[in-house]
Automatic annotation (TrEMBL):
PANTHER family: OS01G0105900 PROTEIN, SUGAR KINASE. This is Carbohydrate kinase PfkB domain-containing protein. Residues 73-336 form the Carbohydrate kinase PfkB domain. Keywords: Kinase, Transferase. The lineage of its organism: Eukaryota, Viridiplantae, Streptophyta, Embryophyta, Tracheophyta. One of its GO terms (molecular function) is kinase activity. It holds the Pfam family PfkB. It comes from Gossypium barbadense (Sea Island cotton). SUPFAM superfamilies: Ribokinase-like.
Length: 362
């Protein structure tokens, strides 16, 4: 497969935070009525891979089921997506943190869209490889309450392999941000090896309750390796992690994660989050004054805010507070990208809470 690497203008300084997303991904996000969700196999609210034919079928059915709202006249949005891309883009565009991406995109329209979206938001794209083949896509179906159901199409998509990574991809960076996924286990392990050799801290997100449920053993092995410095889980993923234990509460999961990770965070949706670092445990409420349009990207942007707090040297509680501000900002509109108005809203919330604002203002 011919792979070429992109270099963007004036690239000298290594990104402070690097995201590994082996396959670039394009999200198609739309608000839909319940009847479409009934037609789609799999549990509502989760994320289950589909073949290209099914993706096309869902996209064609979408048009009959789209809900439009007065606040958001464009009923469907297409943008660069993927959990890690959402986090990295947020760090770059909203927090002004020098961030970059490692991954591969296809030689198609979707690939071009991914690259230009990332580049436009200031992300360092010099570690993205272009390959021959299709770029991954995902349909994000959002119900009237802002809950999302995702159907990614990844099977034929191009992605970066473990043996393509080099020391130079990681050199000079401070953090590596990843998402747990069984299909990317080999590249994840290779990236962790390089990261540790180059002195980077590693952050991982537990992805989805199905991923934790179906591939729990390799995940536990990864956590027990001691190579994961920071772990993010939502309530469902946390419960799944301790499935079968007498106590599978989010608090018990936090305790479990903190045995192996320096920082452990469990997000609790509308109930905020709990986090642990060394002996310190904090509980931070969610921001009450926001209305949920679409929960897509809430955890990803929370992670971005939390990481911003860490690189700024903020306390554990402050890191959680920044996370709740950025997580609250993304759910105010469709998709995993924060709009300029919602960044402004976030800066205002941070100001009210006495948190240090980023050096940039959109």
């Amino acid at each position: 497969m011919g792979a070429e690497t992109l270099v963007n203008n004036g690239e000298a300084k290594a990104p402070l935070i690097l995201g590994l997303q082996p396959a670039a991904l394009i999200d198609h996000v739309a608000c839909v009525d319940w009847s479409l969700l009934h037609q789609i196999p799999g549990e509502r609210g989760g994320s289950i891979p589909v073949e290209f034919k099914e993706l096309e079928h869902i996209l064609s059915e979408l048009k009959k089921h789209i809900l439009t709202s007065v606040d958001d006249p464009s009923p469907m949005k297409t943008m660069a997506g993927g959990s890690v891309a959402n986090t990295i883009r947020g760090l770059s565009s909203g927090f002004g943190v020098n961030s970059g991406m490692i991954g591969a995109y296809g030689d198609d329209e979707q690939g071009q869209l991914f690259v230009s979206n990332m580049n436009f938001t200031g992300v360092n794209i010099s570690r993205l490889r272009k390959k021959t083949g299709p770029t991954a896509q995902c349909v994000c179906l959002v119900d009237a309450y802002g809950n999302r159901t995702m159907r990614p199409c990844l099977s034929t998509a191009v992605k970066v392999q473990g043996d393509e990574l080099t020391k130079d991809d990681f050199s000079g960076s401070k953090w590596l941000v990843m998402r747990y996924g069984i299909f990317n286990l080999e590249v994840t392990q290779a990236a962790i090896r390089f990261a540790k050799l180059e002195g980077l801290s590693v952050s991982i997100d537990l992805a989805s309750f199905e991923m934790v449920r179906n591939f729990r053993e390799p995940l536990l092995k990864l956590l027990k390796s001691g190579d994961i410095d920071l772990c993010f889980a939502n309530e469902d993923e946390a419960t799944e992690l301790l499935r079968g234990e007498a106590n599978a509460s989010p608090e018990a999961a936090l305790e479990y994660l903190s045995k192996y990770c320096r920082w452990a965070v469990v997000t609790l949706g509308a109930n905020g989050c709990i986090a642990k670092h060394a002996p310190e445990v904090v509980r931070v409420p969610a921001i009450g004054e926001t209305k949920v349009v679409d929960a897509t990207g809430a955890g990803d942007l929370f992670a971005g805010g939390f990481l911003y707090g860490l690189v700024k040297g903020l306390s554990l509680e402050e890191c959680c507070k920044v996370g709740s501000c950025s997580g609250g900002a993304v759910i105010r509109s469709l998709g995993g990208e924060v709009t300029p108005e919602n960044w402004q809203w976030m800066y205002k919330q941070m100001q009210i809470k006495g948190l240090p604002l980023p050096d940039i203002r959109n």
